Amino acid sequence: MRSMFACGATVVALTVVAGCTTDSSTGSSVAAAAAGLTPQQMQSYCAGEAAGEFNTRPDYVSTNTALPSTSGGFVVTGTVDRGTEGNPPFECQFARSGRFISFRMI
User: How far is it, in rounded angstroms, from Cα 31 to Cα 60?
Assistant: First the structure.
């Protein structure tokens, strides 16, 4: 049988495993956020988002309890201890279903 590839190239079969995907704009785990989080999980999830956005350890992130937002979902606010750079505030928005919507620095 003749090879259809020049220079003796080898074809490798790839196996794709379904699972979590990452949203390149936020770095969030889309599968986890789509599952619907409880208010307690929202607080932890938001802390992880903040740690990633600020490129710091989660130990330096403080979050408040998830509260109902004016849009009908939930909002989690918090701050990051940046040492001499201060404690910048942030917030995470979640849908009523618990799905993560967005992270923003405020």
Answer: 25
Q: Is the alpha carbon torsion for 22, 28, 30, 32 positive or negative?
A: positive
Share of the chain above pLDDT 90, in %: 65
Nearby residues of 19 by Cβ (< 8 Å), 6 or more positions away: 31
The residue type found at 12 is V
What three-state secondary structure class fits 23?
coil
Phi first, then psi, for residue 93 (nearest 5°) are: -105, 135
Enumerate the β-bridge partners of residue 3.
none
pTM over 0.85: no
d(CA 42, CA 74): 9
The secondary structure element, H or E, covering residue 49 is helix 39-53
* Other CB atoms within 10 Å distance of the CB of residue 13: 4
Mean confidence (pLDDT) of the chain: 79
